[in-house]
Amino acid sequence: MNEDLADALSKASHRQLVDLAAFLTSKFEIQSLDPETGTCADVDEDGIVMALHDWAALHGGKPVGKD
User: Fold this and answer.
1) What angle do CA 48, 1, 44 make, to 5 degrees?
2) Which of 5, 30, 60, 63 could staple 43 via S-S, CB 3.0–4.6 A?
């Protein structure tokens, strides 16, 4: 399933990813944790879009060629 989702995300337009990020931020309180300082910060739509691009580039979170 991860590979199917990664494939779909890699084919999505930037606008589609922005719409998905807007939906996610409207439904969930999404925060990131800075491990060095132990502080939390809200994640904005741009951060989610970047994370979706990165995740898709890793083919669903796995480095290419790794199982």
Assistant:
1) 5
2) 30
SS (H, E, C) 27-38: HCCCEEEECCCC
Strand-pairing partners, residue 42, are: 31
User: How much is the pTM?
Assistant: 0.51
Pairwise CA distance, residues 40 & 28, whole Å: 15
CB 50 within 8 A of CB 4: no
Tokens standing for 66?
């790794």
CB atoms within 10 A of CB 19: 14
Mean pLDDT of 51-61: 71
